[in-house]
Design brief:
The complex is a heterodimer.
Chain A (H helix, E strand, L loop, with lengths): L1 E2 L10 H11 L11 H21 L6 E4 L2 H13 L5 E5 L4 H13 L2 E5 L9 H7 L6 E3 L13 H10 L4 E4 L11 H4 L3 E5 L10 E5 L25 H14 L3 H13 L6 E2 L10 E5 L5 H11 L1 E2 L1 E2 L12 H5 L4 H4 L2 E5 L6 H19 L7
Parallel strand pairs in A: 1-11, 3-4, 3-5, 5-6, 6-7
Antiparallel strand pairs in A: 2-8, 7-8, 9-10, 10-13, 12-13
Helix pairs in contact in A: 1-8, 2-8, 3-4, 9-13, 10-13
Chain B lengths: L3 H8 L12 E7 L4 E10 L2 E10 L2 H14 L4 H4 L4 H8 L6 H19 L10 E5 L4 H12 L3 E8 L16 H13 L4 E5 L1 H17 L6 H20 L4 E3 L4 E6 L2 E6 L16 H4 L2 E2 L7 H10 L21 H7 L7 E5 L4 E5 L22 E6 L4 E5 L1 H4 L1 E11 L5 E5 L7 E7 L5 E9 L7 E6 L2 E8 L1
Parallel strand pairs in B: 4-5, 4-7, 5-6, 7-10, 11-14
Antiparallel strand pairs in B: 1-2, 2-3, 8-9, 11-12, 13-14, 15-18, 15-20, 16-17, 16-19, 17-18, 19-20
The chains are: A alpha/beta, B alpha+beta.
Chain lengths: ~375, ~475
């Protein structure tokens, strides 16, 4: 079985596993305690925080560990918005971890301005500039999109928000796995990162915030993470996260080379979505006209390749991907999109084999396709 | 998420592809998710020689289409008509939210079977009876009675046109949901079900006629017309092709024989009696009809449905003017080009007392919507469509004792009858004088208010309908 779904999650890397092991067994202390066990845990936690801060280009005091990317996004959106009711600006292509909190705030009475993306998958900076007004609670645009892989002009957008005095939140969950993400240079006020997308453990991530004290906490309790995120710290997770992040950055060139190879070998009729835009290096979104992505995913699984549907009709959710619709793709096309995301360990044989399997699968499934009306 | 069986079926291409030339096809789509399934059947007489599917659909619907074809191939028409969504779900095991997806394949199969029905001729089978199924409780109980009587029933539902802009188009008695409910009822009792799409013919025959009558200032009764000139003859034609001699429905009415002629007669439940609505069903079709609920009350029907565990026990009552889908029939008439001309409202002496927005908005006896303001209450007396005039007057002026019915027909000779001039109106004694060119005059023993041209006049002798026609 060949794994080509690194945008969904990744295997725990050896660096992270090795770093974590002692903290899963003998070094099990609670970092809040003053005894030797507690001090050992505290030292590991703060060491991890310094590493993460250095790699993400921010101060250690700006790193708030969370249970993952979704919590970090929720913390940022709800934390900046607080009360009373107000207004926020969100791009139309956000991950559900930002989109759903915004929709919830809309239900509560907030005004949400949704900013569209162009056909190339890039959020429209002019529309963003028009949407953001002084007094808005937050403006949120992701660093790189999880469906298309398209990298967004974060610095430009953050500067626009800053001009208007509006905090800018950036979901960097996909980007941090393969781009040199710099919080300081981005100009963002907060940023979400997750460990399991970059060969770290599941269940840990962080919110980087310029001024963490400005945020209203979501989780109350023992006051850990300077009161912003209560709950006994996940020491093995944080240590594993730091180790994984250290190892993550060096694979971009390899991924990009593998992607180029894949996209050159695609069967006829398969199109690369947003091919002209700047994309995450291992990310390739494929349109297979007329064939439903859910069927392709199942058929490729039988062929030994794990990939994702760009837009799955999960039970009860009949909507095709809001991301693809937001950039002007038709609903029918959006249902025929396959997401292939390559990893550090992906080989030339893997991508060649995948391209061939895709060709065979399309040939088989083509029989029995209902021609468009 | 997906069962192994679901994945196997969805990826199998065994039955995938286009059926051969001469095949009949059925199509079903879900606009909410964009899924579409098409099933083609190659027939060898009444036997399905091959079944093939094409789809642009999720794995659940694709698997269901594959399975539906595997189950249908090799069966005869009525055997395949026993296949329902429940049979597909039993093997595919979709999560509850995906049952709409597997149902799509069942819909496509049944649409193909309906198309096949138009071309088959089954050998006559004496025990076979076609039961007209609406999806409601009455036809469901009628079906159980047919089974209990030892008949071999085939459920048939007519898919009829419903105003797409109606507020409850989806819930109307002939909507896709009603068709599915009827199919579930049949399948739960092991009975084959066919749903025949007659939307276009129904619209041309019944709906256009309804619109034209309103446009001419008349007050038509579409149900009497539909039963008399459309629905029963359509079901009889299907019964002929299926080799079934008899037709059963869930109407509250009975069949009485007099002088060698079959007559429709009042049902035992005075509240539900539907003989008025059936007054124009031709005698040769009535001859074949059986109304299993004619001898009981609606309350008994509901109790029997509950006792039999029928899902239809909780179904809503069907409405009059079913194709208006719960909407205002005047709006429907206007949307379909039947708006009558605007004009004057005048009193009996011809004095103009106001203006109106179209004669189709009025019926004799109507008091609302005249917009005449104060003074003595005014009622519509009559509509003069040619002059675009609505004539109003006092309540006393509404009463009439003589009514001309044409066209009309006496089924058996009768001089003294009880005449019913609207569905929700009690019958009055009347003397019948036949007219030379067909039709008849009625002299009513007591005055009746709001007699409306276009409505059905139905004449009873005892409980039997001995004559009927349209009020001139």
């Amino acid at each position: 079985m060949i794994y080509l779904d690194h945008a969904a999650t990744t295997a725990l890397g050896p660096e992270a596993r090795e770093a974590m092991e002692p903290y899963l067994s003998e070094r099990f202390g609670n970092a809040s305690e003053p005894h030797a066990y507690g001090r050992e845990a505290r030292a590991a936690l703060e060491g991890a925080r310094r590493t993460v801060a250095e790699l993400l280009d921010c101060g250690p005091a700006q790193v708030v560990f969370t249970s993952g990317g979704s919590e970090a996004d929720n913390q940022a959106v709800f934390g900046f918005c607080g009360r009373p009711l107000g207004r926020l600006v969100v791009s139309a292509i956000e991950h559900p971890a930002v989109r759903e909190p915004a929709i919830e705030l809309e239900r509560q009475g907030f005004e949400v301005a949704w900013v569209p993306a162009g056909g190339d998958g890039v959020v429209d900076a002019a529309a963003f500039a028009e949407a953001v007004r002084p007094g808005d609670r937050v403006a949120a645009v992701m660093w790189a999109n999880n469906v298309t892989g398209v990298v967004q002009p974060v610095e430009e957008l953050a500067a626009i928000a800053r001009d208007r005095g509006v905090p800018f939140h950036c979901d960097a969950v996909q980007a941090a796995a393969s781009l040199p993400v710099s919080f300081a240079r981005s100009g963002a006020d907060s940023m979400a990162v997750s460990a399991h997308k970059l060969h770290g453990p599941k269940g840990v991530g962080c919110l980087v915030a310029r001024e963490p004290a400005r945020l209203r906490p979501l989780v109350l309790g023992g006051g850990q993470e300077r009161g912003l995120r209560s709950g006994t710290e996940n020491i093995p997770g944080c240590v594993g996260f730091a180790a994984a992040l250290s190892a993550a950055r060096s694979t971009a060139d390899h991924r990009r080379a593998m992607r180029t190879r894949l996209e050159a070998a695609l069967p006829e009729g398969v199109e690369v979505v947003c091919a002209a835009a700047e994309r995450l290096p291992g990310h390739s979104l494929l349109l297979v006209p007329g064939i439903r992505a859910e069927l392709l995913v199942l058929a490729l699984d039988r062929e030994g390749y794990a990939v994702a549907a760009g837009s799955a009709c999960s039970a009860g959710d009949a909507e095709p991907s809001h991301v693809l619709l937001a950039q002007g793709m038709s609903a029918e096309e959006a249902r025929c999109v396959l997401r292939v995301s390559l990893g550090a360990g992906t080989t030339a044989a893997d991508v060649d084999g995948f391209a061939a399997a895709l060709g065979r699968t399309i040939g088989t499934l083509r029989q029995g396709i209902l021609p468009a009306a | 998420m997906y069962s192994t069986e679901c994945v196997d079926l969805a990826l199998s291409r065994a039955m995938a592809g286009d059926a051969g030339p001469g095949a009949v096809h059925g199509h079903a789509g879900n606009p909410a998710c964009g899924d579409a399934v098409r099933i083609g059947l190659e027939l060898d007489g009444a036997r399905i020689a091959a079944a093939r599917h094409q789809s642009f659909a999720c794995p659940h619907a694709t698997a269901a289409a594959e399975l539906a074809c595997r189950l249908a191939e090799g069966r005869d028409l009525l055997g395949a008509a026993r296949i329902g969504a429940a049979d597909l779900d039993a093997r595919i095991e979709p999560p509850p939210a995906a049952r709409a997806c597997t149902a799509l394949a069942a819909d496509a199969l049944h649409a193909a079977l309906a198309a096949a029905t138009a071309s088959v001729q089954l050998a006559a089978a004496p025990e076979r009876v076609v039961v007209a199924m609406s999806g409601g409780v009455d036809s469901a109980v009628a079906l159980t009675k047919a089974l209990a009587a030892g008949a071999a029933p085939v459920g048939v539902t007519l898919r009829l046109w419903v105003d797409p802009q109606a507020p409850h188009a989806d819930r109307a008695c002939c909507s896709p949901e009603a068709v599915r409910a009827a199919r579930r009822t049949c399948h739960s009792l092991g009975v084959p079900h066919l749903a025949v799409d007659l939307r276009d013919a129904f619209r041309r025959t019944v709906v256009d006629d309804f619109v034209a009558a309103h446009a001419g200032g008349r007050t038509p009764n579409p149900c009497v017309r539909c039963n008399g000139a459309f629905r029963f003859s359509a079901i009889a034609a299907i019964a002929d092709r299926l080799g079934a001699g008899r037709i059963a429905t869930g109407h509250y009415a009975r069949v009485e024989r007099r002088e060698g002629t079959a007559l429709v007669a009042r049902g035992a439940d005075p509240e539900k009696d539907q003989s008025y609505m059936l007054a124009s069903v031709p005698a040769e079709i009535l001859e074949r009809c059986w109304f299993p609920l004619g001898g009981q009350t609606k309350a008994e029907t509901r109790a029997q449905a509950r006792a039999a565990g029928l899902a239809a026990a909780a179904a809503r009552e069907s409405q009059e003017v079913c194709f208006a889908g719960g909407g205002d029939h005047r709006a429907l008439v206007e949307r379909r080009g039947g708006a009558g001309p605007e004009g004057e409202i005048v009193d009996a002496a011809g004095r103009v007392v106001g203006r109106h927005a179209g004669v189709h908005r009025f019926t004799p006896g109507q008091r609302r919507g005249l917009g005449l303001g104060g003074g003595a209450p005014a009622f519509v007396l009559r509509i003069e469509a040619a002059a675009a005039r609505v004539v109003v007057g006092s309540r006393a002026e509404l009463a009439r004792t003589s009514v001309r019915v044409a066209p009309g027909r006496m089924y058996v000779a009768a001089g003294r009858v009880q005449a019913k001039l609207r569905y929700r109106q009690s019958a009055v004694w009347a003397t019948v004088t036949p007219l030379p060119g067909g039709g008849f005059d009625l002299d009513l023993d007591e005055p009746v208010e709001g007699v409306a041209p276009g409505q059905a006049a139905v004449l009873y002798d005892g409980d039997a309908v001995v004559g009927a026609g349209t009020i001139e």
